[in-house]
Amino acid sequence: MKRPRFLPDNFTLAMIATVIAASVFPCHGQGEIIFNNITHVAVSLLFFLHGAKLSREAVVAGITHWRLHLLVMLCTFALFPLLGLLLKPVLTPLVTPDLYLGILFLCMLPSTVQSSIAFTAAARGNVPAAICSASASNLFGIFLTPLLVGLLTSAQMAGGSPLDSALQIALQLLLPFIAGQIARRWIGAWVERNKALTRLVDQGSILLVVYTAFSEAVGQGLWHELSWATLAGLMVVNALLLGLVMFISAQAARRLGFNREDRIAIVFCGSKKSLASGVPMAKVLFAGGALGAVVLPLMLFHQLQLMVCAVLAQRYAKEVD
C-alpha cells in the first residue's frame, strides 16, 4: 500500500508518539533515574559512531574553503542569536517566557550534520565543504553553545559556570566523538556498511531524551500552561527565524561572490539547528528547569527545517537539470 503523501515520516510519528507516551505515562522516581542513565549511554554511543563514521579525507577536501566555513559559523553562532535577541519584542507576545528561552537556546545551537550534507548533495551543491562545515559547527558548538547560553540566559541555567557546562558536554559528546575517530581505522568500514545502526542509535537517543524531558515537564504542568494559540505562535516564530536566516545567508553568499555550489552549502548548513546535539545539551544546561518547554521549539523547528529544505533542494536540483 502506497504511503499517503500527507503522512509525516516515521521519525516524526515516533516523536509524536513519544510525547504522548510521556504525557500519559511519565517516568518518575527510580524509573526516571534508570531512563536518564540509559539516555546518557545512548547519546555517548551516538557521538562515538559519528566519530567513527566521519571520513578524514572528506574533512581535508573541504577544510581549505575557510571563507565558506566562516560564513556558516557566523550564520549559526552570530546571526541566529542576534535575531533571537532583536526579535524579542515581536516574539514574546506570541509565546510564554519558557518557550522564548527555548527559542533563544535553539538560536545558539550548532548546525545539523546528516541533513545538511544530504540536502546539499540533493541540490547538487559543494558536498565536501558541507561535510567539513557541518562537522566543524558541531565540534565548535560543544564549547560555543554553553558559553552563549551562559552569556545570554545565565539566570535560567541549571547551575554552575558556562565553562563547567561546556566541560560536562565535552565529556558526554566530544570525548566519545574523539574515541570514535581513533577507532575508525578498525571499525570505520563496519560502521559505513551498517548505516541503519547509526540511524537507530541517532533516533533512539533523541526519543529517549524527549521522553525523559517531557516526563519531567508534564510533572511541572507543561500542558496546562500551553494553549493552541501559543503553539501556533511558536510555529510562526520558527518560520520567521528560518525564513530570515535563509534569506540573509543566501544574499550574503551571493554578494560575497560564492559560486552556486558554495551558496547551496552555505544556505543548508547555515540555516539548520541540530536536534541530535541540542536535546542532550539542553538536558545538561537546563537540568531541573523547564526542560520540556525549552526543547519544544527545537523539536518543531527541526520538522520545519526538514520540510522547507526538502522543497528548496528539489528547486535547486531542477535548475541544474
From TrEMBL:
Name of the protein in its database record: Bile acid:sodium symporter
Organism: Duganella margarita
Pfam families: SBF_like (PF13593)
Keywords, in A-Z order: Membrane, Transmembrane, Transmembrane helix
Transmembrane spans: 39-56, 68-87, 99-122, 129-153, 165-184, 226-250, 281-301
Lineage: Bacteria, Pseudomonadati, Pseudomonadota, Betaproteobacteria, Burkholderiales
